[in-house]
Amino acid sequence: MPIQNSPYQAFATLLTSSGHNVSPAELHGLLLGRSAAGVGFDQDGWLADANDLLEGEIQDNVRNALIGLQEMVKGELTGDDMTVVLLLPTDDVPLADRAAALGQWCQGFLSGFGLNYRDNALSDESNEVLQDLAAIAQVQDALEESDDGESDYMEVMEYLRVAPLLLFTETKKPTEAAPAKPSLH
């Protein structure tokens, strides 16, 4: 059965062919981490953070893909579905590789969140989510090629599809709830 050219694989090919040795999962995690930290969807800020990770000049085709990725994430985080599509390898990829990508996604998320989160206090629930992500980033080698391993992987993946939304909901700046103050801009 031929391997489908998944969005993950297409992005990996684009990055590799552009000389960037970075996992699409880590890049997607970075973007979601930034977004969940409440920085909004400023294109320049995202491209600057992505540029730091990619270490090198970003060509137009990669830049356009990064902007498209951000638009997708913005739609997911601000939409009504309450779920995020993770940029990860498809199920026909060996579990070890998928688990590694999951770990890279978590590392990217923690980096993006850590670089951009400016307030000090998070709820206990949000702190717990960040601790979970740090733990998941470490356990990628623990998943074994088995039914249990597959089941664990699916559980973790489901968790990661809602974790960013919890943080995003907590950190996004309340817009209409704030009393009207004169703007200094």
UniProtKB/TrEMBL annotation:
SUPFAM superfamilies: YgfB-like. InterPro entries: YgfB-like, YgfB-like_sf. Pfam families: UPF0149. GO terms for cellular component: cytosol. It comes from the Bacteria. Belongs to the UPF0149 family. This is Uncharacterized protein. It comes from Pseudomonas endophytica.
